[in-house]
Amino acid sequence: MPKRKLDPLPSAAFHILLALAGEDLHGYAIMRQVEQQTDGRVRLGPGTLYGSIKTLLEARLIEELAEHPDGQLGMERRRYYHLTSAGLTLARSEAKNLADLLRVARAKRILRGAHV
Amino acid sequence: MSEKIYAWLLKLYPMRFREEYGASALQLFRDRLGTERGVFRRFRFWFDVIADLAISVPREHWRRKPSAPAMGGSFRISEEAVAAMTKRGALAPAVFVSLFVVLGLTMAGSGIPNTCSFSPRTSLLRLSRLGTSGTSEGSKDVGGATN
Question: Which residues of chain B lie closer than 8 angstroms to A54, CB-CB?
Fold first, then answer.
């Protein structure tokens, strides 16, 4: 069951779900997207990325697309991944939990600067 | 050259993982290698690759086989740990150490002296003393330990 393996949701898995929330992406594009959305702080390596993808696929939070958007001649075949509705629900729930924590941190004046 | 090294390093992953994601991982490595130019960026890239291997290789080896029946959280982890230790011949030492820990905790719970600085030798000596002189010494020592 997905709940067991991904409870709590690992950081890498959450980043991947967020990266796929906008569009269907292949492995390298997911890595770039995660790097971009974290201002370069998180750079997923191949092992971590595909290990997390495997876990998310097993939990049916993402799915591999049968047809590839860049399936043009001369291009190497890439595996594209798509966020499922269960994945979106989990990402939403995780984001809400983090938002609640952020609210507490703000109330306790832990955060300073632009976050406040 | 870098690609050949990484292809060789990929052999550290279990066969199952390599069959499924080996080609994709190598492709990702190739893509990223192409964009990381300059000494600093290359150094950082290899640092990331080594750190990634250090984290993900053990995790993939510990990953549960999909054919095995599903079981509840902590029991599943214990089962995996025992299976792995048996495979590595580490089960007997682990059981031995666990017995000493349990013995120490039991002594602490039953008020046998100096359990806060538990050592097998002193505890066994005290146990033998308790056997010869009854419980009076034990209660005296407990008082001493709490002072």
Answer: 17, 20-21
